[in-house]
Amino acid sequence: MVIADAEMPGSRQPYHAAAGLPLAQAEALVRSAVESSRALAVEALSATVQRLRSRGHEVAGCGVLLGSGKALPGLEKVLASHALIHTAEGATFRDVLVWAAKECRLPVTGVREKELDAASLQRIGPLGKLIGPPWTQDQKYATLAALLALV
User: Fold this and answer.
1) Is position 11 within any domain?
2) pLDDT (tens digit, 9 = 90+) per residue, 119-136?
3) Could you read off the pLDDT of 31-73 as tens digits, one per residue?
4) How far is CA 14 from CA 1, 34, 60, 85, in A?
5) Is residue 36 part of a domain?
6) Total domains, the chain
């Protein structure tokens, strides 16, 4: 799912692009990138839901892997820390996905990575042979989040 407009400067890493700009410009850039990403996410997710439903599948909800849940400071402090810039970008794109799912009237189940245990990851490991590559830890975590959304 593409949720960053390649034609829009700064949309892939809005906080990186905003670093070094005057605060008002940084806020505008981040806001514009988020609005664009929301539109792309709603478009992609609604098309996926529609395609699945047209094939007779029930779309029961959406599982989203969440970050630590720690609140971020204001934009000025985020932009002053490279580590916080990365954290903010991850949080922003997760928030965009949650927002899009809600716009598509899908129940959202948020799962924190630290809540997933090693035993669950081992149990779904063999699915990789059926699904095919890539089957990295990211795909395993996403699969567990999706399965938890079905519970």
Assistant:
1) yes
2) 888 899 899 999 899 999
3) 999 999 999 999 999 999 999 999 999 999 999 999 877 899 9
4) 18, 8, 32, 9
5) yes
6) 1
